[in-house]
Sequence to fold (417 residues):
Amino acid sequence: MATLKPFKAVRPLPEKAKAIASHPYDVMDSDEAVIEVKKNPLSFLHVEKPEVDLPEGTDLYDPAVYAKAKENLYKYITDGHMFQDDKRMFYIYRQTMDGRGQYGLVGLSSIDEYYDGTILKHEYTRADKEADRIRHVDTCNAHPSPVFFTYRHQEVIDETVEKVVKNTKPVYDFVADDGIGHTLWLMDDENDIATIEGAFAKLTNLYVADGHHRTASGARVGMMRREQFPDYKGDEEFNYTMAVIFPDNQLKIFDYNRVVIDLNGNTTEEFFQKVGEKWDIAEVPAGQDFAPSRMHQVSMYIEGKWYFISPKKGTWNEDDVVDNLDVAILQNNLLQPILGIDDPRTCNRIDFVGGIRGLGELVNRVDSGREKVAFAMYATSMDQLLGVADAGRIMPPKSTWFEPKLRSGLFIHLLDD
Fold:
């Protein structure tokens, strides 16, 4: 049984929504955030990246950073830019990219279901990143930005969402500067709300698609509040985290590519010789599309040329849901044994490039001399992601890149409402 619960969101006035909506905290660095808030003074980056309002050089984990986030959050309300709905409801959040729309439901998920395994994960989290988000949520006394969940699509949910979209006018509908469309509808009819709650209650699992650190920190803050209030009843706001949850058949995972700065002491000839022991190698003819076109095909760029490399039979376990992932095959049969990338999460000789930036970015980085070799991956599928999570397993780091990213600042969940 899974929970999705309506709530009373704090959200922007309709005429302020586009200006306030911002990228999440982990999409841009502090310098980029400073530039953005100068261009757009209302940007929610004042909460997501509050260091923009503190002296240059302030430690990102200084208590003043979290205090400034809280101050900025509530200033949106006191200055009249944001308000809180007076009725619990669900919100339908559509994102449109390249003509493709995905419709998510904004609601609350139970922290108990994060701990009991109802909400399944596919990535490890880092303690330092969790600690940062815990302090941010705890100090703000709110979930300023949502986590990104998915579920196996259900017809009754699709039909209810479609009915509301068709018969009601959106409260927000704008295209951000990056070309992504953002539209929000209110689902405030009690019958529709009951239908959605009942449909989710029949689901065995929900899945974290993106935002594992925010999910973990939201759950942890809830447990901290329970320790502070041992007489809690279970229906308090801190027992829940805010999520946008999309059906699996509407989501698209992009490729997540790799670049390595050197050949680990190998000459180019030695590198190709070692790769050829476990991989079939074919140079891509000039003018031919060099993007991988299927599972178990990787495109490799080195010294101005593209190659298709495919793992030879018997070099991986095809029956294992993790070993069968292309990112795992590349790690286990090339990055680790040949290039010495033992732990891609901590090794400083490897970097990762989201597929949204295009394969031209890989060419530029190798041709500039910044890196020596690049690997373009065939994107992990939603079925693979769900299969790994269902098996209770963990994907290798940087296996999935979701686009479009959720915008922050369009809906906020207060922990003491």
Remarks:
- The longest strand covers residues 100-110.
